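Subgroup meeting minutes
Present: P.N., E.W., G.H.
Scribe: E.W.

1. P.N. recapped why we're keeping a running log of single-chain structure predictions: easier to compare across weeks, and new members can see raw inputs and outputs side by side.
2. G.H. added today's entry (185 aa).
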Amino acid sequence: MSQLKTNLAVYKNTWYKPGGSPFRRGLWYIVSVAFFKSAFPFYGTKRFLLRLFGAKVGKGVVIKPHVSIKYPWRLVVGNQVWIGEQVWIDNLANVTIHDNCCISQGAMLLCGNHNYKKATFDLIVKEIHLEEGAWVGARSLVTPGVRLGSHSLLTAGSTATSALEPYGIYQGNPAIKVRQRVISE
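Output recorded in log:
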C-alpha cells in the first residue's frame, strides 16, 4: 500500500488575510524589531505603539523586552496584564487577553498550525482567549483555539491543547488538570 506524502510545492494559503496593507505590515515589522523584540524598557511607549497599530490595550499593561507580536490589529489586552520576556504571540487569528492575566517568560500563544492529514499541509488558524486572571507559565504553549478559563493556571513547560476550566491548575504535555487553584488574600 502506497502512502500519500506531504507536498509543500502545492501549499496555498491565499485565503488567509492577515489584515493591514503590506506597507502597514512592513512598518510594524520595523517598529516591532526596534521597540518590542529589543531590550527597549518603556512600557508606556509600547502600549502607545500597539494602540497606534490597532491593538486594544488597557491600563497598566507591562510588556517586558524581547516580546514578539505578529499582528497588533488582532490583539486585545485588558487592564493590568503582564507579558514576560521572550513571549511570542503568533496571532494569525485574534488573541484576547482579559484583565489581570500573566504570560510568563518564553511562553508562546500560537494561533496557527497546519493540517498534517492533507498532502497540501493546509494552514489552520483559530483564536485564543485568556479569561480574567489566567496565568500562562514560563516556557508553556497555548495552541490554536484554546480558551483558558478565569484564573486558570498552565504550569511552566506545559502545553494547552484544549480548554482549561476556571481556577484549574494544568500541567504536562498535553496539559491535564492536577488540582484546583485557591487564591487567598
